[in-house]
Amino acid sequence: MFSPVESRRLYRQVADQIRLMIASGELAVGQRLPAERDLAEQLSVSRPTVREALIVLEVEGLVNIRMGSGIYVVRQHAANAPASEREPVEGPFELLQARAIIECAIAEEAAGCAEPEGIALLDDALTRMSGGVNDAGAVIAADRAFHTGIAAIVGNATLIRVTGEMFDMRMSPYFEKLASHFEGPMTWRSAVDEHRAIRDAIAAGDAAGAKAAMRVHLTMSQKRFSESFGEEFSGEEERGRSRRPAKGTIKT
Amino acid sequence: MFSPVESRRLYRQVADQIRLMIASGELAVGQRLPAERDLAEQLSVSRPTVREALIVLEVEGLVNIRMGSGIYVVRQHAANAPASEREPVEGPFELLQARAIIECAIAEEAAGCAEPEGIALLDDALTRMSGGVNDAGAVIAADRAFHTGIAAIVGNATLIRVTGEMFDMRMSPYFEKLASHFEGPMTWRSAVDEHRAIRDAIAAGDAAGAKAAMRVHLTMSQKRFSESFGEEFSGEEERGRSRRPAKGTIKT
DNA sequence: ATGCGCCAATTGGTCAGGCCAGTTGACCAG
DNA sequence: CTGGTCAACTGGCCTGACCAATTGGCGCAT
Prior knowledge:
homodimer; Arc Repressor Mutant, subunit A; two-stranded antiparallel ribbon; 2 strands; DNA-binding
């Protein structure tokens, strides 16, 4: 295999270099970068090239360009890379563990401020989920609605967003492949039952119960997944990552 | 009313226009765009401006620029908004509430699996934070390291990422302006003390204590913020900008 | 001494024109 | 028909310049 002579365009190299300096902290958050003209000189490139690189960083949300003032570092980390090439993402087990910890806390909180309208939201998601066990798309959408719905009960947009984002990570290419094997009408029926238990606990204002029910749900979900995972990849270590899958045991 | 004067930077206007043509299907997927020189002429702007606009679209993954060949439409829809334009609708208070719920749970979990190396991570962040109370950038970096460090103790990459992302949201332009007013050596010293309480509880394996300490920390942080928030907006409308005041009232 | 307004240095925004290098397709020799 | 060559086209990058917004300091008036 011959490698396709990578001759990266200059402005990308410059962007990478600056991005690295920001990530490493060499350019602190809030700090002003040297002027475009100075950057061009220091990097031995022309100003247009520097500008193009800076525009890339601006689009990525790393820097803030203010006319007449300067260029400022906004944050260190690209919260979302081009999404297409997003981090080698975390493994499915890590994700489920994280969801267990976070969503248990949210369910607990939601039980403390449940109102009829919020419960109605969950009920709607439940009926949609149990009603369409043969339509994978519909079930997943309803599943998502249920989980974000719990966050909605708390009435906090950030929680809703975070919950949704974590749910959506199951759509990562790697995750997706396996999902088709372990997701089926049977597992979904179990999931609906577990959802209903969560809903009932929240409706009853039972914080501890809601937390426990959510933990059961995500633990079971993890178990269902790991079973088909074992079949699929018996023996192989999860993506060759050094991270021990054992860490995935929930101890909350 | 005077016309909006359209002061947006040119390359952004050009990018928007081309993006629109792609979205509307006027430029089909796979089709080649006119040459940069032609685009410049048709849009009555210079070629560098067209180039900058095209680089924006390339970073967004809408087009593929091939040297010597041309520019091709890759897909119609921007899968994810460019982060900079990402709805920041959530208010600072909502963010702090969400962090309280989530990070309390993480701290609780961390207390259950604390190991010397993890504690060392927190200690390092603490010393860096207390050591540089006069360097805003250093303190914020250390602050971030402390919070993500707790997630690191649990050993879950997803938790680390989520914690970091929530922390970084304080860098939103709206949040930032106020931060400079309520953040100072004094408030930071308080924050360090609260951090230390969290660290001690985790080191002692006291789950309930860690949870409580984290709650205290984020509640106090919210309080400090809300005080200066009141001062700042007591009457003056910041620079005549039509900023919406805090949308999120906290209901914890 | 203090507060206000003006001005100039600095910095990003845009333009014009030019040269180089890679791509592509037509054309021609074998 | 096959292969190679070449010229037109296209993006990549540079130089140098001017415009516009910002900002900090200087000087004037109070």
